[in-house]
Write a structure and sequence with these properties.
The protein is mainly alpha-helical. It is built from 19 helices and two strands. The chain has a two-stranded antiparallel ribbon. Strand 1 and strand 2 form a beta hairpin. Helix 2 crosses helix 15. The radius of gyration is 21 Å and the shape is globular. It binds tryptophan (TRP). The site of tryptophan has 16 residues, from helix 2, helix 3, helix 11 and helix 15.
Amino acid sequence: MEEKNKRDGFGSKLGIIAAAAGSAIGLGNIYRFPCELGNNGGAAFLLVYLIVVVFLGIPVMLSELVIGRRGQSNAVGAFKKLAPKSAWPIVGYIGVLCGFIIFAFYSTISGWTLEYIVKSVSNSFQGKDLAAMEQDFSNFHDMGWRNVMWQAIFIFLTGFVVFKGVQNGIERYAKILMPVLLVILVILGVRSATLPGAKDGLVFLFKPDFSKITGKVLISALGQGFFSLSLGMGALITYGSYIKKDDNLTSTAFSVVLSDTLIALLAGIVIFPAAFSFGINPQAGMGLVFNTIPMIFNQMMGGYWFCIIFFVLLAIAALTSTISLLEVVVAYLSEELHIKRQWATVLACVATMLIGSFASLSLKSNTSLAFGGRTVFDWMDFISSNILLPLGGLLIVLFVGWRLGKSHFFDEVTNSGKLKSPLKRIILFIIRYLAPLAIIVIFISGLIK
Ligand code: TRP
């Protein structure tokens, strides 16, 4: 127990949920989810996604929290403590690497949110039609160093919060603002769904065409599920280690999954009706979200102000996510390699900046930073989300199901018998059999064209 007092921790129940939900809710919901859905057949993707989130998301999240709180350590250290002298810490190393890669390209798009705050303050969307919006968007990409500058600022902001440690850093920022984002999304959703021609967007989003479910759709939904819930790389192992012994892990996992999925769904309801109404191709990828949203605000009373608030909140949502990515790396560097927390933060941020700038610069239209049909940015996204996260998730459920053992799992989930946890047996069954099998099957179906 002496150990526990030494480590930083989350203060209140709301603090944990806010921090874990803050990690989960981010650009993955508002930016990546609509892109993936648009590229993978619409409602068919949504259906698979929802199944993934419920049947894999909850058990994997609970597994991570259990490992973290049981191990009282960072992603690597937790495995070292729970399975000494074994190969299991490799799972943690993969996680740290993966967190680093995700932070590198995620900070590119996080940087855009800052550019878009400036654009909205200077009223530069006003009265623009789609062609003009698209032109602006690609002009911005061609200013490679401007992207890098925003990215650097964003990485600096993340570093600043992580620098100050868990208790006063993460918790305080996460608590208040996400509900405000939810309210704005609801308002936007109502406006979007009542635009002329919006119905086609709702059909695209909600009426599944089952013939569209292919191996690629399955693996994209799996990757998106893990990405959106921050699973598979130890972010929630690290956060789990900060959770107090008397907090309820199962209900935390349920709350986080529910709120994250709600925000993603809302983002879909905001984007697709409007995109169809304005004639934006659902497969437009990066432009889909960044062009559609300002155009909805153009159609709204008070749109100028809403637009500013929206992009500020989006930046904050991204920040609470990048904090969790950086935290994984910093907790590892400081606890395992005994680098002082402050130096570990500086080191990780500088390294991310170096690698991340390649991701940003690879988005220029005449870039040479592309190979095999993908830009560096896309490669980082693809390798981390569609390969490393599911692989990490697979190893994590195998660890909890087969190595950690039933009694340890039940002990964590019930807080040593103090909680009832009626679902614990079903969840353990999923962790042992269903989840590993499903992840493997989806993986293989994604490999076969
Ligand atoms: N879940 C975040 C989002 O949706 C991104 C994120 C933060 C993440 N931490 C992570 C993704 C850890 C994978 C793993 O925006």
